[in-house]
Amino acid sequence: MKLFVHHCFILLLLLVCNWKITKGVVELPQGVSVPAVIVFGDSIMDTGNNNNKMGTLARCNFPPYGKDFKGGIPTGRFGNGKVPSDFVVEELGIKEFLPAYLDPNLQASDLITGVCFASGGSGYDPLTSKLVSAISLMDQIDLFKEYIGKLQVLVGEERTNFIIANSIYLVVVGSNDISNTYFLSHARQVQYDIPAYTDLMLSSALNFFKEIYQLGARRIGVFSAPPIGCVPFQRTLLGGIVRKCADKYNEASVLFNSKLSKQLASLNKSLPGSRTVYLDVYNPLLDLIVNYQNYGYKVGDRGCCGTGEVEAAVLCNSLAPPCADVSDYVFWDSFHPSESVYRKLVGPILHKYMYLFF
Q1: Is 259 within the bounds of a domain?
Q2: Which of 16, 26, 84, 112 is such that its CA lies 20 to 30 A from the CA of 94?
Q3: Using CA of residue 91, residue 93, residue 94, residue 98, what is the dihedral sign?
Q4: Is residue 330 part of a domain?
Q5: Domain-embedded: residue 42
Q6: What is the per-residue pLDDT across 85-125, written as a single tens digit (0 to 9) for each?
């Protein structure tokens, strides 16, 4: 009897919400459309924008990056295959890959269903992008404005307005601020302690959300900062012989995430029609890293590339051959998770939060 009631409750919940999940693809509520996905952020989401960015070492358009991508091609994605940008459009049934806006081979038809503006090395703090010559969030906004103009020429103003208002926007930033700008380079430590620096990050973040809102964005998903202290690079530097997670990095992420989630709730009240959603990736990713064996992995504290301790971007190259089987590893290099980890994370996150956009 209890099992019958449980099943009835689930059925009733699905009927009331008019929400279905079929074959791993999120199907939207009846009458709702998501014509495109637009992504801003850093290397987690970058699908190749940094390839032709002069002066930056945050580039990976060379082997062994992309070894498991379609055709084994290094595309500028910071991983062995697809990145979250790709899995989001796949889960929503929009297209197979989300192209980089600055890809010289970008087709006009690609604009209609969305593009990626993310740049490896970017951050909320304007200084973060400057340190590695990445495309800053403000520059990503300029590219977004350019994109809107191209879309108007392509499909007309009315259709453009529909696409801009109904698309889902994803923002993935924060890791580089905490890891590189604050702790590694010490560039902000003279001016700020961690509470003050996370306030700076938050202020920049809110300004960014308001800017894209003014340009027409309404459905904005903001990913939390991840447990950056548990990436292999930080464990190599600070984890000692047992390679523990660097607690102070994680504590900074937790503090920022707490502030961010509270402010996003207030932001929706001040911006009419806004559906800005906080997406927690910190806890599911931390669980996967700490309990990696429960997810079928053999190595959780090193990356697949080279020794897996410090190799990332230019240090992960053909002279630093990858492991024999990346499916055994949580991380591809010393900063970025493997394709299979992204696949495990993206689907459940979309299924958990998607209804909040409507």
Answers
A1: yes
A2: 16
A3: positive
A4: yes
A5: yes
A6: 999 999 999 999 999 999 999 999 999 999 999 999 999 99
